[in-house]
């Protein structure tokens, strides 16, 4: 029962088509937030305002939030450039503080995840996307959107607002501006 020859040799596989990339409008961002269950809205709001990758958000701990400096420290990322501090607005701070207060969490256990399920458990990407995010996208009329498009939206908004082109890749966790320009803006 040993195969002596690879049966796929000589088979032409179809080339993948171009990847569809989307950027949400302001109205679509608002619709997405409003379509998301209230307990998950803080995660979506922070994703839109920081451009963090889902895995970066998932790995954030309470200790990564610095209220005095108004920053989030990304300690784990897929790249070295992804390890960074993200500046937060006063609104971002209020959103995160409200989220923590809503489920009775404080800085006392700083190793807890920053964003949790309503039961205080770690949010797992597959469950979150299948049970929460897909429905929110559909309800907002955004069936073609993926979580990563939220990141792309953030980057595009920064460029449209006239943010220094050197700052955007740093905020996004990109080593080279070419990545930011080619894929995210």
Notes on the structure:
- It is a single chain.
- This protein has helices at residues 26-35, 41-50, 54-59, 90-102, 125-139, 147-160, 167-172, 177-184, and strands at 65-66, 71-74, 84-87.
- The chain is mainly alpha-helical and 185 residues long.
- Strands 1-2-3 form a 3-stranded antiparallel beta sheet.
- A hairpin with a 4-residue loop joins β1 and β2.
- α2 (41-50) packs across α6.
- The protein is globular, with a radius of gyration of 19 Å.
Strand order of the largest sheet: 1-2-3
Gyration radius, in Å: 19 Å
What share of residues is helical?
40-55%
Question: Quick one: biggest sheet?
Answer: 3 strands, antiparallel
Distance between the termini: 52 Å
Blueprint of the fold:
Blueprint: H1 26-35, H2 41-50, H3 54-59, E1 65-66, E2 71-74, E3 84-87, H4 90-102, H5 125-139, H6 147-160, H7 167-172, H8 177-184
Antiparallel strand pairs: 1-2, 2-3
Helix pairs in contact: 1-2, 1-5, 2-4, 2-6
Brief synopsis:
The protein is mainly alpha-helical.
Identify the notable features of this structure and list them briefly.
mainly alpha, three-stranded antiparallel beta sheet, 185 residues
């Amino acid at each position: 029962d040993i195969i002596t020859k690879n049966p796929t040799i000589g088979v032409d596989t179809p080339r993948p088509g171009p990847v569809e990339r989307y950027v949400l409008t302001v109205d679509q961002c608002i619709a997405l937030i409003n379509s998301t269950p209230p307990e998950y809205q803080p995660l979506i709001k922070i994703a839109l305002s920081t451009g963090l990758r889902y895995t970066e958000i998932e790995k954030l701990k309470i200790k990564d939030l610095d209220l005095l400096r108004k920053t989030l420290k990304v300690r784990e990322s897929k790249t070295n450039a992804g390890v960074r501090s993200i500046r937060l607005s006063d609104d971002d701070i209020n959103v995160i503080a409200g989220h923590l207060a809503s489920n009775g969490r404080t800085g006392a256990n700083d190793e807890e995840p920053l964003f949790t399920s309503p039961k205080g458990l770690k949010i797992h990407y597959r469950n979150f996307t299948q049970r929460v995010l897909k429905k929110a996208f559909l309800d907002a009329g955004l069936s073609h959107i993926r979580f990563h498009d939220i990141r792309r939206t953030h980057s595009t908004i920064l460029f449209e607002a006239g943010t220094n082109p050197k700052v955007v890749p740093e905020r996004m966790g990109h080593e080279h501006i070419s990545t930011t320009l080619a894929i995210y803006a």
